[in-house]
């Protein structure tokens, strides 16, 4: 007989309350079970000590005779320090592929080139403005000279 440590749902509609049970894996979720080893109330705050109550001795016994915990029960056992739970997430899964990385590098290079070109254009424009101002200052007559011509 394959034994599973799993949750059995109770409670009213939209007010769940779970028993942590050792049950034959072929039985229905809320069906007959061998032993209740704890409770789980998801409506309580996460830091509340009554949210998960677990009989550690009985959990160790059932694990010792070969019971397999469900994912949620495995989390509870890990939090209680009864059984180490292996990490299930693949940290490299969200990393982009090689081609996407190449495209991102190309975009970054194009942006850098565009920024450099814009800076160079600004510097050239600033240099040209300064040159035109200097040229305009040289071509303009002295302020006193314009008054004399206007009077004469």
Automatic annotation (TrEMBL):
GO cellular component, as recorded: cytoplasm; small ribosomal subunit
Location of region: Disordered: 85-152
Record PROSITE patterns: RIBOSOMAL_S16 (PS00732)
A family per Pfam: Ribosomal_S16
GO MF term list: structural constituent of ribosome
GO biological process: translation
SUPFAM superfamilies with a match to the protein in the record: Ribosomal protein S16
Residue ranges with Basic and acidic residues bias: 95-122
Record has RNA-binding as a keyword: no
Record-given protein name: Small ribosomal subunit protein bS16
Species annotation: Croceibacterium atlanticum
